[in-house]
User: Fold this.
Amino acid sequence: MSTRLCDARTRVAALALAVMAAAAGSGHAQGPAVGPQVPREGGTPLPAAPSMLAAGQSVLMGGVPAGAATSTVLSVSLGDAIARGLKQNLGVVLGEQAVRSASGVRWQSLSGLLPTAGFRVSQTREEINLEEFGFPVAPGQSPIIGPFNVAALHLSASAPVFDYAAIQRARAGAQVAGAASHSFRDARDLVAFVTANLYLQAVAGASRIDAARMQIATAQTLYDHAVGQNKAGIVPGIEVLRAQVQLESQQQRLIFYTNEFAKQKLALQRAVGIPLGQVIELTDRLPYSALDRMTLDQALAEAYASREDLQAALAMVHAAEANRQAAVGEGLPSVVVSGDIGRSSNAWDTLHGTYAVNALVRVPIFQGGRVHGRVLQADAEVKQQQAQVADLRVRIEYEARAALLDLQAADDRVRVARSAAGLAGQQLTQAQDRFTAGVTSNLEVVQAQETVATATDNYLSALYAHNLAKISLARAVGLAEERGRQLLRSAE
Assistant:
């Protein structure tokens, strides 16, 4: 039973490892890739958990496709994406099976406290040597009796009356099952976080495409104007070349952003289980709404009460403590009652009733240090689990502090980026007017266009960072699934 309990713990730890990997991989999500010319800012020790990562990629980035791709465009909102992810994401699918597996181990550990019964039918033909059993045989007589037949029908049952080790193993199994359930709910929180992050990245990519198209339209207008002035002999040919270079530079941006957006949608589709061949349309855009301030004490209180990974770790501490008591119980007396009732004879038509009742008291006296060794191992495991809980509490505090800092910085960043984008637009308008009036060359206009492109990109990045900070805070306090969509409600 200790081996089964450790197997269950291994599976729970593996799920927890996937959760931590997703947190490490998605907690500080990378922004869009850099484009061309775009400036960027039991009594047995817990065995080592097998990694649930494949090629360094978290299972939460994968999904099980549902249905087949169709020719119609599928509209997907942020709420739709999260709902699909909570059903089809690979982390959710594997987590469901991990919970089932832990439940199976719980039933196996509980079986040590439950009665067992069996029915058997036998037909035997045998010979008996009386001397084998110590019966005297008269000289000259054969000690062999038989051959003869034995026909029997028997119903047997046994039940533990008291077994402290079995009681503690059942308790440990229940705690492991509870830890698996908490880990599964934590995985759901992370799926909501990862899905929202992927959706926001794709939405930011779509916004960058829209901005790039507007910049192309502006560059095209300036190019046409430069060509007209050149034909009229007002400006030299270098002005036309400079405008053409700027136009093609903006076209490169559009090509880059279009490709990035396509890949971002593929990543989202994979994570939420939409077939990759399905054409999708994102219906939400990057929202902005200031979030009510939350103090650190409020965040920590909510996190310690709501974080499912912390609850799973505490359950594993209780499981380790019960496993230690089970190891202690192996050196204590146990009582088992068993019985057998049946009918037997030398032929099926002459069966006679028989029964037997047995009470067994087992008192271990000396077991060669086996129990002591298991207690030492189980005690070390308790200490390990307690250390992991202490470390997790510190990590939760770190994540809460970091999320609050990121949210404050993101608010400030959005405000500054919005102002910078407005000023850059004014700068471009004035540069165009000066160029049209012949006061300056279009070099000033080109520089203003680059400033607008950079300011627009920085503003979109700030919006993305703001919304990521919101869902990161929801994740830090342990309510990503319930509150993630509420924090981004203005997107709907």
In short: The chain has one domain: 2-27+59-110+164-330+369-491. Residues 1-5, 7-57 have pLDDT under 50 and may be disordered.
